TrEMBL record:
Record family assignment: Belongs to the thiolase-like superfamily. Beta-ketoacyl-ACP synthases family.
Protein name as catalogued: beta-ketoacyl-[acyl-carrier-protein] synthase I
InterPro entries reported for this sequence: Beta-ketoacyl_synthase, Ketoacyl_synth_AS, Ketoacyl_synth_C, Ketoacyl_synth_N, PKS_Beta-ketoAc_synthase_dom, Thiolase-like
Tree of life domain: Eukaryota
Ketosynthase family 3 (KS3) domain: residues covered: 35-522
PANTHER family: 3-OXOACYL-[ACYL-CARRIER-PROTEIN] SYNTHASE, MITOCHONDRIAL (PTHR11712:SF297), POLYKETIDE SYNTHASE-RELATED (PTHR11712)
Pfam families: ketoacyl-synt, Ketoacyl-synt_C
Enzyme Commission number(s): 2.3.1.41
Top EC group: transferase
Keywords tagged on the record: Transferase
SUPFAM superfamilies in the record: Thiolase-like
Coiled coil, from the record: none
Length: 524
């Protein structure tokens, strides 16, 4: 008798559900999906401190500097006569730069190897830097897929700030000399910023998302954050992500000089030129290089036994909506970016996710019966119950981190008088007593490597990941007279500090008022 009643009830409910679906004129809601966890499994660096992660990190922690005096040869004006080259050099008010060391010795960037690879046409310098950094990162991650499906599930997200300005300058000179017919057919492919991602994709056969962000000095961070989202939402299982830049040329330096953004006081002492948070700072030092990370879905990484450096826990973005080059004095844009990274978009506040989280945690018959009861009492649609049962293993139950749980911040601080102070106040606003008590270790690594523009966010994200991995927060170079915004406890690190780092934040802010913050945490 009970069985017959149960069968009749099931039949009635099925009929009611079918009639409801058939009579509805609107489409059903999209299927619900849950974000996947993303980890860092590989790192690659080309920086002013050297070529390679190990070389760069060792020199950074030991307080070495990659900034030197600029020479006329650095301006890349080979198409111009000697007199024009020297006149241009003399007119530049800033004559220091953070240049990638080139050569064939260990820790140097081998131009012959990366500019003249046999399997590709000659490429621009910023693309070569990206290829070199991506090669190291992929080898570090031990990810060289040969299976077609694995290649289709691997994507690239490498952005840049300015592309190849030197190529544009040479092309303009051809017009002046009435030699435009000699323009290379590879001119456009050499200057397009997305070609860094394109060349990496083509070299390894990656057919997943092929993406390139261009957001000035926040490019590297946005490229990593966007790649994280692509993995989270299932567009790829692995992403090669980062930023690249090669802007040490006559036109780029002249442009930043005219904008009064570059340092001019330390031409005779280059190693002291970049001094974030210091009272005697007067502008940033232009730099070049590339940073590439391998981002991977957690279970995918674990299944192949990959080394996990850190987990990407948050990605915050904001806009200043104020000025083309200057942040608002209240630091609201920086505050919003950091707060949104900390807020953690894994959170889910709806009743649906609350029930799903309960089911995941307990996975017992009583929870399933509860869901079925809610269905039969008209408190929960049948489609939702089915979804809950099918997604027991995928529903996230992570929450965001409290500011007090962050141990280290790699600040954007570029050594500009206005920007550094605004960011310091923003950090103080977000972290409050945690910062003013001295518990938060924060620093800017630009004292050692200068400002790498579109590559800065990626290189500094790698420094942040390495700080977690090695338990060392890097120093702020040239901090001899701290800005008055600081006090005894609230002070940037002037020496590298060994300490356990559970979570760390990396900030990147760019012209146009674009801001990005990346939150990394220990994989444990």
């Amino acid at each position: 008798m009970a069985r017959r009643c149960w069968h009749k009830l099931q039949t009635t409910r099925r009929f009611q559900l079918a009639r409801q679906l058939s009579s509805s004129s609107s489409l059903p809601p999209p299927p619900l999906s849950s974000p996947r966890r993303v980890v860092v499994t590989g790192l690659g660096l080309v920086s002013p401190l050297g070529c390679g992660v190990e070389t760069t990190w060792k020199r950074l922690i030991e307080g070495e500097c990659g900034i030197r005096a600029v020479t006329p040869e650095d301006l890349k004006m080979n198409a111009f006569d000697k007199q024009t080259q020297m006149l241009t050099f003399d007119h530049l008010t800033s004559k220091v730069a953070a240049v990638v060391p080139c050569g064939t010795a260990p820790g140097e960037f081998n131009e012959d190897l990366w500019f003249n690879a046999k399997d590709q046409r000659p490429v621009a310098r910023f693309i070569s830097y990206a290829l070199c950094a991506a090669d190291e990162a992929l080898k570090d991650a031990k990810w060289v897929p040969t299976d077609q499906e694995e290649k289709e599930r691997t994507g690239v997200s490498i952005g840049g700030g300015t592309g190849s300005i030197s190529d544009i300058l040479d092309a303009a000179q051809m017009i002046c000399e009435k030699r435009i017919r000699q323009l290379s057919p590879f001119f456009i492919p050499r200057i397009l910023i997305n070609m860094a991602s394109g060349h990496v994709s083509m070299k390894y056969g990656f057919q997943g998302p092929n993406h390139a962000a261009v957001t000035a000095c926040a490019t590297g961070a946005h490229s990593i954050g966007d790649a994280m989202r692509m993995v989270q939402f299932g567009d790829a299982d692995v992403m090669v992500a980062g930023g690249t830049e090669s802007s040490i040329d006559a036109l780029s330096i002249a442009g930043f000089c005219k904008a009064r953004a570059l340092t001019t006081k330390y031409n005779s002492c280059p190693v002291e030129a970049s001094r974030p948070f210091d009272c005697d700072r007067d502008g940033f030092v232009i730099g070049e290089g590339s940073g590439v990370l391998i981002l991977e879905e957690l279970e995918h990484a674990k299944s192949r036994g990959a080394k996990i450096y850190a987990e990407v826990r948050g990605y915050g973005m904001s806009g200043d909506a104020y000025h083309i080059t200057q942040p608002h004095t209240d630091g609201r844009g920086a505050i919003l970016a950091m707060a949104r990274a900390l807020k953690q978009h894994f959170r889910q506040k709806s009743k649906l996710y609350a029930i799903a989280s309960c089911l995941r945690m307990w996975k017992n018959i009583s929870c399933v019966l509860l869901a079925l009861y809610l269905w039969y009492s008209d408190k929960l649609p049948a489609s939702i119950v089915i979804w809950l049962i099918m997604h027991l293993h995928t529903v996230p139950f992570q929450s965001g981190l409290h500011p007090n749980q962050v141990d280290h911040v790699n600040a954007h601080a570029t050594s500009t008088p206005l920007g550094d102070t605004i960011e310091a106040n923003a950090i103080k606003s977000i972290f409050a007593d945690h910062a003013t008590s001295g518990a938060l270790a924060f620093s800017s690594t630009k004292g050692a490597v200068g400002h790498l523009l579109g590559a800065a966010g990626a290189v500094e994200a790698i420094f942040t990941v390495l700080a977690i991995h090695h338990g060392v927060a890097p120093l702020t170079l040239n901090l001899s007279k701290p800005d008055p915004v600081f006090n005894d406890a609230f002070m940037p690190l002037s020496a590298s500090k060994e300490m356990p780092i559970r979570a760390a934040l990396s900030n990147s802010f760019g012209f146009g008022g674009t801001n990005a913050s990346l939150l990394f945490a220990s994989p444990s």
